[in-house]
Amino acid sequence: MGASIKDVAARAGVSIATVSHVLNGTRPTQQQTRERVLAAIRDLGYAQNQAARNLARGRSTLLGLLISDIRNPFFPDITAGFQDQALAHDMDALVMNTNYDPQRTLNSVRRLVGLQVPGVAVLTSQIDPAVIETLAGHRIAAVYLDLGRVDQSISNIVLDYEHGIIESLEYLTQLGHRRIAYIGGPLHLTSAQRRKRAFMETAVRLGLEPSHTFDADFTVKGGYFACSKLLNGSTAPTAIVAGNDLTAIGILHRAYDGKLRVPEDLSVVGFDDILFAEYTQPALTTVAVPRGEIGRVAFQALWTMLSDPDLTGREYRVGTRLVIRDSTLPPGKNAD
Q1: How many domains does the chain divide into?
Q2: The domain that contains 31 carries what CATH number?
Q3: Do 326 and 188 share a domain, yes or no?
Q4: pTM beyond 0.85
Q5: Contact 214, 244 (CB under 8 A)
Q6: For residue 110, what are the contacts with CB-CB under 8 A and spacing of at least 6?
Q7: How confident is the model at residue 335 (pLDDT cuts 50, 70, 90)?
Q8: Looking at residues 81-86, what average pLDDT do you find?
Q9: What local confidence, expressed as pLDDT, does residue 97 receive?
Q10: Region 190-196: what's the mean pLDDT?
């Protein structure tokens, strides 16, 4: 049997109530008394009963974090940023992987409701209305990624995809590229729609040649096969902008298999700046999305709502920036 709160109180020479106040922060305690209690906890290896702690505080210290795919390198930094902030505020984070499945997402939300969590960060690619209704109906603070609206108990994080796409195209045209193609993601995702729309509108504004666009699936394999279609066309592009870095890595592989040199024969720009982007061959020019900041902002959005009796929602904006590496150059002579 482990040590109990009674054992801690006896070792520190204080009451059980005093130990509880030190653990839960429910009443100020003299510094000397607090230090004795903490020393007793360390000496005895005492582990606090979380359920009792939540009861003392009047609410759970557990927050939910829903992500689309734990295997996707886009999400680890988001998760770490969120968890770091939770721990700094004496909270815990329960991470759930939805695997892009709406029903699995809804089931995860129902489990979190059952756990009586006060807040949930839904940082998935697609958000079912039933998820929003369930959380709002139970007055659980929720922050979403690109939901498009705020309301009571609903905050929204907006990623500036458009700026990243615009910056990429302007950079490529400054290098001299005129035939620039785009390989994006599935159009049922709002983020994919926004990136593609930004590419098409910017290509028209810059007066580029009619641009080929393909809707892939944001995977390495999808990027590979979409690139094959582009390169087999009558007019091959001199540069390709990818909707994410996994797609760009697929393009790099297809170029290698087709004996095309990157960037001499084909320039490639990605999106997200995942960890692997810096270590591809050549290192990938890409749009950096500050994923750790997304996690930190998501926690702050929940914390702000939970500090407000009305659970007032807010909108938060996160910027993007182009990171220039080795996968882009002016077009070669064979591109004329």
Answers
A1: 3
A2: 1.10.260.40
A3: yes
A4: no
A5: no
A6: 134
A7: very low
A8: 94
A9: 94
A10: 92
Q: For every residue of the chain, which 3-state class applies, written as one string?
A: CCCCHHHHHHHHCCCHHHHHHHHHCCCCCCHHHHHHHHHHHHHHCCCCCHHHHHHHHCCCCEEEEEECCCCCCCCHHHHHHHHHHHHHCCCEEEEEECCCCHHHHHHHHHHHHHCCCCEEEEECCCCCHHHHHHHHHCCCEEEEECCCCCEECEEEEEECHHHHHHHHHHHHHHHCCCCEEEEECCCCCHHHHHHHHHHHHHHHHCCCCCCCEEECCCCHHHHHHHHHHHHCCCCCCCEEEECCHHHHHHHHHHHHHCCCCCCCCCEEEEEECCHHHHHCCCCCEEEECCHHHHHHHHHHHHHHHHCCCCCECCEEEECCEEECCCCCCCCCHHHC
Residue 209: CATH number of its domain: 3.40.50.2300
pLDDT in tens, 238-294: 999 999 999 999 999 999 999 999 999 999 999 999 989 999 999 999 999 999 999
Domain that holds residue 223: 161-289+322-335
**Cα first-last separation, the chain:** 78
pLDDT in tens, 140-153: 999 999 887 899 99
Give the per-residue pLDDT at 61.
83
